[in-house]
Design brief:
Blueprint lengths: L18 H15 L3 H14 L3 H24 L1
Helix pairs in contact: 1-2, 1-3, 2-3
C-alpha cells in the first residue's frame, strides 16, 4: 500500500525558491533541454505571468537568468 502525502499546497502560497532550488532546476533544464534551457524557463515565466502568478513568474525568470549566466561563463572559459 502506497503512503499518501498530505501536503497543504495552495496557489496563493509563497513559491519563492531558495538559491539552491534555482540552481537545481537550472541543472535539470540544462540536462534535459541543453541550449534551449533558458527558453524553457522563460516559457514558464511567461505562462505564470499571464496567469497572474507573479511569484512563480519571478522564480522562473531567475532560473532563466542563471542558465544564461552559466552559459556565458562556459563560453568565456573557451
Amino acid at each position: 500500500m502506497a503512503a499518501s502525502t498530505t501536503h497543504s499546497w495552495h496557489p496563493d502560497t509563497d513559491a519563492t525558491p531558495t538559491p539552491r532550488d534555482v540552481a537545481a532546476i537550472a541543472e535539470v533544464l540544462e540536462g534535459r533541454h541543453g541550449s534551449f534551457a533558458a527558453e524553457v524557463a522563460e516559457f514558464f515565466a511567461c505562462y505564470h505571468g499571464e496567469k497572474g502568478d507573479a511569484g512563480r513568474a519571478w522564480a522562473w525568470s531567475g532560473v532563466a537568468e542563471l542558465v544564461r549566466n552559466r552559459e556565458r561563463a562556459r563560453l568565456e572559459r573557451v
